[in-house]
Amino acid sequence: MTRVSTTQLRCRFAERLSSLYSVEVPAYNTLVDVSREVNERVLRRDGATAEQLGSLARVTSERHGAIRVGTAAELGQVARIFGALGMHPAGFYDLRDAHPLPVPVVSTAFRPLAREELAQNPFRMFTSVLVPEDRRFFDEELGSRLQAFLAARQLFPDELLILADRAQEHGELAAATAERFLDLATHAFALSSEPVDRAWYAALEQVSVVAADIGGVQTTHLNHLTPRVLDIDELHRVMTERGIVMLDEIQGPPRWDGPDVLLRQTSFRALAEPRTFREADGTLRQGSLRVRFGEVEARGVALSSSGRVRYEQLVQAVDRVVVEDPGRPRSEIAAAVWNAGMPNTYRELERQGLAQFTYRVADAVPAGAAPHTRDELIDHGWLHIEPIVYEDFLPRSAAGIFSSNLSDGARHDDQQGGPLRDAAWLAAAIGRPLHVPEDGYAAESAASLASVSERLGIVLQSAKEHGPSAPTPPPSPPAATTSPRPR
Ligand code: OOG
Ligand code: NI
């Protein structure tokens, strides 16, 4: 009997969701088509270097989705479903004090962790869970009603969860069972045609559109499905040419003189989708909701912990100069700040220990190469460095993506404290450990250096991480600025 492995289940699930979303949100197709065109063009333009951060095959089929659930219990169930697909929780993001708009959720991403699994299919799901106990958003009364509503619904049928556990336990399912599992899993993330209770939805919308999207209905659904492109500026240009209005801002690092770093994302605004509403008197009426949108992303090299410190400093420097020099486009300011404050080659990022790389011994290393340092071997061309691609998300970009699609602010009372929701809380809700992205990249780099050391018979030191030395952003008058909090 044919068996379907968790890896194959993940590939098929990603394809199923893509087919589903292309029917539900047709503009997604345009995004996918343009992404493919842009990727092929970049490959022709840049040759082999285009594939330094992943093969064209991987990048072209690469997607991330986003879903939102209401409770720790629902999150735990989601973890079982994704566990069956070889996707594990990585990273913790708190969007409740996000700027410009706070969102009453905390998030993680489910994704494959091992390099080989990522190469097969890196499908990941940004997953947010609502915090109805957070009094900065929900008063006592609304918060309790919300909790009762959420406790009474069932997002995932028992059969789906049982099959998920079976797949996880055995690492595979029989072919027919796999089909059943994929049908149920895909259906669980489809937009429901069940009528939406108008008054209840509206009450939550007063607090936050995201709260209404999560807790205003009996089901969950995919919020977006994001293709990856090799040149996001080019994609932005082509989409605009085709008449799809993209948001002006690209979240994350700017276009600058250096290589792609971490993650750059942009989206088009949520489209009105027809939904049926149940009115207070019980009648059904057609209406529409703008909740789901299209997003696209470009991925770059992962940073080390000192690189992340540097990144945060640059983010703050950009914010500062934007305030001081409101006439100048943000993208221009950001490029100047980055060019001044971040080394603009892989070689230099590696030398300064700011970004993460793996190491490969060149084909022809002369005898006598041995008594050299890591730097010397690289400079002689005997040791090649290869960037490790960033597989995760950025809290500030996520906040920007959320808020870019919210028309108005969430009700938010800063006088109230919020309940503690941290990585440990999330891990407990899920019932399994949370992968720490930075540790993963560091370990991969260190393992690669160790194996190269062994091969050459010498001990190679990794780049000494530079301390959080301040970069040199363009000078700014100290008065009249409030430095934003790091996020
Ligand atoms: C998630 C927003 C964040 C990303 O790629 O950073 C996100 C959501 O809207 O549910 O998708
Ligand atoms: Ni996203």
Brief summary of the model shown:
By secondary structure, the chain is an alpha+beta fold. It has helices at 6-24, 27-46, 56-61, 72-83, 115-120, 140-152, 158-170, 175-188, 198-207, 209-215, 232-241, 305-324, 330-341, 346-351, 374-379, 395-404, 423-430, 437-456; strands at residues 3-5, 63-69, 88-94, 105-111, 124-130, 172-174, 196-197, 224-227, 263-268, 272-278, 284-290, 294-299, 357-361, 383-387.
Describe this structure in words.
The protein is an alpha+beta fold and 487 residues long. The protein has a single domain (3-409, 438-466), classed as Roll (2,3-Dihydroxybiphenyl 1,2-Dioxygenase, domain 1). Helices cover 44% and strands 16% of the residues. The chain has 18 helices and 14 strands. The strands form 5 sheets. Strands 3-4-5-2-8 form a 5-stranded mixed beta sheet. It has a 3-stranded mixed beta sheet with strand order 7-10-11. Strands 1-6 form a two-stranded antiparallel sheet. Helix 2 crosses helix 11. The longest helix has 20 residues, at 27-46. The protein is globular, with a radius of gyration of 24 Å. Mean pLDDT is 90; it is low at 466-487. Bound molecules: 2-oxoadipic acid and nickel (II) ion. The site of nickel (II) ion (NI) has 7 residues, from strand 2 and strand 8.
